[in-house]
Structure formats: structure tokens, C-alpha cells
Inverse folding.
């Protein structure tokens, strides 16, 4: 009995000894699909090497809608996690409410201002102070294709949306689904955005960032909607409510020829053991080879109590930006590192093309925030656009003119 | 008269010894207090809070800048909300009607003193034990045109067979009705069966002696006497319809587009994911109004009925 009590005390001591040196970080994220989960585990491993405890707080669901709900309820009740996967204008919203902590010390030590492109670092700052750490840069305007299906149906990879339609006809005639698509609002918006992007950076900026009423009602926008409805005809009948990774697996299995989806789709190809350039190919979405719509994932740091936990949190921020994590994470996830000047060796051709395009477009003004992924506008405006786009996509009787009017009115009402 | 006598007895006893308020007198109040407080705060308190929020410009977190009824104005100018309300009308109406009809028919069939009634009753009642999330997911697979019922029929040789309601914006709301009816009609059957068993046997025998056949007996004598059961079933079904959320979330997630949205889904999306707490609260208040529109007449008739007896 005495022996047991002794050993118990010993255990208790060793636990308390361990906790005095190391803190705990709780990280809220929605990286739950195969490739994504493997990516976040890298960070978990690094944190545990530092002696900290990682408390995983994963909330499944595309585009993180459910995760944000959970985060809000936790934050309002005064118990936010140490870190959460929030991005774009949402970082500013949380910053304005005073929930985020200052990361300037870590940023200074790690030279974040130098290693991050300005587009990225600006998004991570609230009122000039770093409050979030970027984990990757996603290119959204990608076309993923199964070359085998193209070969069998005698079609070629389209480079404009007009050509997309004629090639898709061939694929359809050969008995394949031309476009793998999941009918969820954010996926509809991703496709819509890729079509709108063909009209150029000026149009895109004015429509989705400037929210100009004239642009939203313009003939060009009507044309975008018209093409969007045509593309709708090349989707199989079971698309409604399908998850994006299921749509990706249709391309992987050779049931479908193409998918318009951000480069996180590559994670699914990789997880299925496919090789870029052989089993699948990646091209910029039709007509958008000069453009780069970005979606930067970041982990924002919330104010936490306890010195150990704060230390752990700062360590987390530091580790995120270190080349080791940036490389491994992005290799798994399919995206490209947020920091510049990294070794490219291990990345595949799709990632190389993405990196080149990222650098090139940042000088020409063609580097654009993705509307569909919450980088361009507030969640209210984004929601309003989602509603109109998804409703139009699914309503066969709605004309482009009506849709344009609805879009302009919905955006105005949400501001 | 007898009940009155019993009721008046303790009052007299208490009046006889007014000075000594014993623990026994306080006990019921003490025991009830926590639940009363919890109910007042967690039900009515939050209801009032929602009403307050619906008149503010709250966005991501609650704020208290009052803007009058402009959130309600925005709400009724919102296309998606109108779709959700219309869907509630179609879904609620059909769901209640079909459940009642099916429930009554099943109950009457089961009432014919058939063999192994217990087993059959359990089978019909069982869907009620399953959560709407499971029902929704299962029906999502069954109704999906590429791998469900349609594919089965095509594989069986009916190549022209189409059943694409789930992806058709005009028909998707009927998919909700199908799944919900499957879930709830067994429950209505159980309610009516209990009611049927409670009908006085002498009445039925008398009717039969008078030469009424089974159909007439049910139509003229048994069913009219089940009015209270009918009313309870209707109230339960209508509140299931108004608060329906999980079924939509699992079966269609509001899609295609937002054509199968119900008010609860609208409320959730706007309050929690779109940072429009004010607008979401306004929609919640409209839903509360719908519930009250059904409950108040019901409670009124119930309470008045008691007084008459």
C-alpha cells in the first residue's frame, strides 16, 4: 500500500515537473480530409518535440463553416482556443473585437517582414501588428484533369471557357462526366469565380473587392453568368451536396475529366498515390493562366492565460514559419509555402508552376484575393454572393439578367 | 363535488394553525425553485434576449445599437427567407397531412386484433427512435440519382427511369416530406392506436347491434371521439415541422442552391456563419411567432375545456 502511494506521488511529481516547463496549445482547425490531416500532424509533431502539449480541436466541414460557429461560441463564453484557423478579412474582424494576441516579438526574431511577401504579411497584421501566422498559400484557379479520360475522348485541355464548352461536348459524347463538381455553395462560388476571372483583374477587383454596383450589373457580368449556366450542363446529376474530395475522387478514378478546385485537391491525388504529370495534370483554370487567386490559410493566436501556455503559443507561431514545417506541410497539403526563398527541390511541377505564377502575378497586379474563400470580402458580403450564385446555378429558369440584378441588390443589402 | 371537498381540506387545516409554517409547507417550493429559475432564465430569458437582439444591428457578436424593426424589413426583403418560409408552408402542410392520414390508416388496420400486433407496432414505431440526422443521411443515399433508387431501377432494366427530385430545385422539398413522413407516421399511428383502444367497447357493440358496418362505425363513432388525439398529434407534428433543422442539414444541406432551406436553417446560417446575428434573431422571432400561432389557440382551448368540465 505504501509502495503504491509512493509511486503515485512520484508519478504526480513527474507530471507536475513536466507541466511547469511546457505549455498546452489548443488548435482549432478544419483540416480533416486525408491529405490535410497528415499535414497538420506535422505541426503537432514539432510542437511535441519542443515539449509542449498539443490539444487537437478539429471540426469537420468544408470551408470551415461549422468550425467558425464553434469558435464564436467558445470566444463569447471567454474560453477561446490558443489558436484557430481563421483567415483574410475575418482576422481583422476578430482583431477589432480585441481577441487576438500580439506576435511582433516572434515576427521580429524570425524576420517575417523579409521572408513573407507583402500581400501575405498584410493579411496577417491587425493595425500593423502581427496577430496570425500563415501556413500556406493556395492557388484557387486550378484545373485538375485526368489525361486518360482526355485521351479516350479525343479532347484537349481547354485554355478558354469558350473552348471548355466545345471540349466538354466531346468528353460528354465519349460517355464521361466532363466536370466533377460538388453542389455546395462554396464550390459553386469557386467555379463562378474562376469564370469571372477570365474577364481580367480590373473587372475582378471592381466586382468582388470594390463591390461596384456598375460592375456587378455590367454586360461582362451577364456574360459571366451566361457561361456559368452553360458549364452547369457538364456536371453529372448527382452533384448536389457532394463534398469536394468526393468530386476529386471522380477525377482520380477516371469517371470525370476535370475539376475546377484549389490546389488542396492535389493533396487528395497525392493521398491516392497518383503522380503529377502522369496520372493527373494541373493547369490554370481556362483563361486565367496569368492570374493567381490566393487563399492563405493562417493560424491566428488568441489571448490565453498562463505564462507556459503563452510561451507555447509563441513557439507555435515561430514553428509555423520555419522552413521545416512550411516544406513538409505544403508537400502534404498541395499548396505552396507562404515564405519566400525556400528550397524547391521536393515540390512537384504543379507546385513549381504555382510558385512561379505567385511571384510573377505579384508584380503585375494579377495576384487577387479569392472571393469564394473569404479572402476578398467580409463574411456578410460573401454570404450574399454565395446565395445568388448557388441559386442561379441550380435554378434552370433564372436568366443571367435577373441574376445580375439579384447579385447587385444582395451585395448592397449585406453591406 | 367530491374533489372540491378534498381540495378544501388542507386549506382549512392551514388556516387553523397560521403561525407555524413548517418545512413541509416550504418543501414543494424549495424543490421546485431550481427548475423554475432554470426555465425562466434559459427559456424565457433567452427568448427575450433574442427579441432584443433582433432589434439591434448585431453582426459577429451581440451589440446593443438599436435600429428598430429594420432587421425585419431586411428579412422580408431577403429572397432566401421567402424561399425558406414557402418551403415551411409546403413541407409543414404536406408532412402533417400525410402523417395524420397514414397514421390513422395504420392504426385502424392494427386495431383489427391481428396476430403478432406487438411486433408490427414496434416495426412501425421504430423510425421514431432514429435521429433525423440518420434518417436524412440514409434518404440522401436512397434518393441520390447516381447511386440510389434511380440507379437501382436502371440496373434492373428500366433505362428511362428518372427520379431526380433530390437535385431538382422545384421538387427537393418533397424529398424532405418523404423522409419526415417515413420518420413520424409510425408515431402518429401509436398515438391513434392508444386512442382507439380507449374508445368505450359498449359504444361499438351498440353501433354493431344497430347494424352499422365496420367502416361506418369508424367514420361516425370511433374517429369523431378521437378529436383530442387528433389535436395533440397535430400540435406535435407542427412543432416538429417548424423546428426542423437536422433533417435538412443531413438530407440536402439546403441545396440545390438554397431551394430546400427551412427557417431554422436560415437562422443558423445567418446567426452563426454569416455574422448577421441581428438578422438571424429576427428570423428566430418569426419562427417563434409561427409556434405561438399554433400553440396559443391550442392552450386556450385546452384550458377552457378544463374549466367547463
Amino acid at each position: 500500500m505504501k509502495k503504491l502511494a509512493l509511486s503515485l506521488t512520484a508519478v504526480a511529481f513527474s507530471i507536475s515537473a513536466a507541466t511547469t516547463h511546457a505549455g498546452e496549445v489548443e488548435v482549432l482547425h478544419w483540416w480533416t480530409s486525408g491529405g490535410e490531416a497528415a499535414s497538420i500532424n506535422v505541426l503537432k509533431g514539432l510542437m511535441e518535440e519542443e515539449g509542449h502539449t498539443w490539444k487537437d480541436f478539429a471540426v469537420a466541414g468544408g470551408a470551415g463553416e461549422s468550425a467558425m460557429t464553434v469558435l464564436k461560441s467558445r470566444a463569447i463564453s471567454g474560453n477561446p482556443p490558443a489558436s484557430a484557423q481563421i483567415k483574410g478579412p475575418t482576422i481583422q474582424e476578430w482583431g477589432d473585437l480585441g481577441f487576438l494576441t500580439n506576435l511582433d516579438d516572434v515576427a521580429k526574431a524570425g524576420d517575417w517582414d523579409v521572408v513573407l511577401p507583402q500581400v501575405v504579411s498584410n493579411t496577417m497584421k491587425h493595425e500593423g501588428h502581427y496577430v496570425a501566422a500563415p501556413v500556406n498559400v493556395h492557388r484557387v484557379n486550378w484545373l485538375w484533369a485526368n489525361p486518360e479520360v482526355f485521351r479516350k475522348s479525343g479532347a484537349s485541355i481547354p485554355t478558354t471557357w469558350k473552348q471548355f464548352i466545345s471540349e466538354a461536348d466531346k468528353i460528354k459524347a465519349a460517355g464521361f462526366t466532363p466536370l466533377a463538381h460538388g453542389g455546395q455553395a462554396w464550390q459553386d462560388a469557386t467555379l463562378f469565380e474562376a469564370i469571372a476571372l477570365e474577364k481580367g483583374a480590373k473587372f475582378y477587383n471592381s466586382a468582388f473587392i470594390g463591390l461596384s454596383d456598375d460592375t456587378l450589373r455590367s454586360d461582362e457580368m451577364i456574360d459571366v453568368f451566361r457561361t456559368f449556366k452553360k458549364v452547369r450542363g457538364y456536371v453529372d446529376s448527382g452533384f448536389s451536396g457532394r463534398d469536394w474530395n468526393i468530386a476529386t475522387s471522380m477525377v482520380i478514378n477516371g469517371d470525370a475529366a476535370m475539376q475546377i478546385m484549389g490546389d488542396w485537391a492535389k493533396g487528395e491525388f497525392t493521398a491516392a498515390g497518383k503522380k503529377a504529370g502522369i496520372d493527373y495534370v494541373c493547369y490554370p483554370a481556362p483563361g486565367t493562366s496569368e492570374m493567381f487567386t490566393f487563399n492563405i490559410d493562417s493560424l491566428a493566436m488568441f489571448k490565453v492565460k498562463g505564462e507556459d501556455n503563452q510561451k507555447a503559443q509563441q513557439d507555435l507561431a515561430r514553428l509555423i514559419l520555419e522552413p521545416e514545417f512550411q516544406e513538409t506541410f505544403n508537400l502534404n497539403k498541395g499548396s505552396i509555402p507562404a515564405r519566400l526563398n525556400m528550397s524547391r527541390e521536393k515540390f512537384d511541377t504543379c507546385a513549381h508552376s504555382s510558385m512561379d505564377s505567385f511571384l510573377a502575378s505579384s508584380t503585375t497586379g494579377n495576384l487577387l484575393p479569392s472571393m469564394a474563400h473569404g479572402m476578398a470580402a467580409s463574411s456578410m458580403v460573401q454570404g450574399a454572393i454565395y446565395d445568388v450564385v448557388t441559386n442561379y446555378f441550380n435554378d434552370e429558369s433564372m436568366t443571367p439578367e435577373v441574376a445580375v440584378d439579384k447579385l447587385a441588390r444582395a451585395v448592397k443589402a449585406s453591406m | 363535488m367530491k374533489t372540491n371537498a378534498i381540495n378544501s381540506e388542507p386549506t382549512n387545516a392551514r388556516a387553523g394553525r397560521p403561525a407555524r409554517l413548517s418545512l413541509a409547507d416550504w418543501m414543494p417550493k424549495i424543490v421546485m425553485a431550481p427548475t423554475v429559475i432554470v426555465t425562466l432564465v434559459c427559456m424565457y430569458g433567452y427568448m427575450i434576449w433574442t427579441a432584443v437582439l433582433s432589434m439591434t444591428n448585431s453582426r459577429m457578436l451581440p451589440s446593443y445599437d438599436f435600429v428598430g424593426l429594420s432587421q425585419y424589413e431586411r428579412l422580408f426583403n431577403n429572397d432566401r427567407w421567402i424561399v425558406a418560409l414557402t418551403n415551411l408552408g409546403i413541407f409543414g402542410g404536406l408532412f402533417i397531412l400525410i402523417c395524420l392520414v397514414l397514421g390513422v390508416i395504420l392504426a385502424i388496420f392494427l386495431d383489427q386484433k391481428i396476430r403478432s400486433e406487438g411486433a408490427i407496432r414496434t416495426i412501425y414505431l421504430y423510425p421514431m427512435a432514429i435521429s433525423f440526422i440518420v434518417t436524412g443521411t440514409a434518404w440522401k443515399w436512397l434518393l441520390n440519382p447516381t447511386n440510389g433508387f434511380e440507379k437501382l431501377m436502371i440496373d434492373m432494366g428500366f433505362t428511362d427511369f428518372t427520379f431526380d427530385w433530390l437535385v431538382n430545385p422545384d421538387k427537393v422539398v418533397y424529398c424532405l416530406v418523404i423522409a419526415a413522413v417515413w420518420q413520424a407516421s409510425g408515431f402518429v399511428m401509436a398515438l391513434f392506436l392508444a386512442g382507439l383502444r380507449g374508445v368505450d367497447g359498449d359504444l361499438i357493440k351498440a353501433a354493431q347491434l344497430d347494424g352499422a358496418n365496420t367502416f361506418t362505425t369508424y367514420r361516425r363513432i370511433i374517429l369523431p371521439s378521437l378529436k383530442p388525439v387528433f389535436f395533440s398529434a397535430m400540435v406535435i407534428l407542427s412543432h416538429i415541422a417548424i423546428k426542423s433543422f437536422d433533417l435538412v442539414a443531413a438530407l440536402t444541406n439546403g441545396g440545390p442552391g438554397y431551394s430546400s432551406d427551412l427557417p431554422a436553417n436560415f437562422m443558423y446560417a445567418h446567426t452563426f456563419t454569416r455574422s448577421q446575428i441581428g438578422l438571424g434573431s429576427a428570423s428566430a422571432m418569426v419562427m417563434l411567432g409561427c409556434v405561438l400561432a399554433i400553440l396559443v389557440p391550442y392552450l386556450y382551448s385546452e384550458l377552457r375545456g378544463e374549466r367547463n368540465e
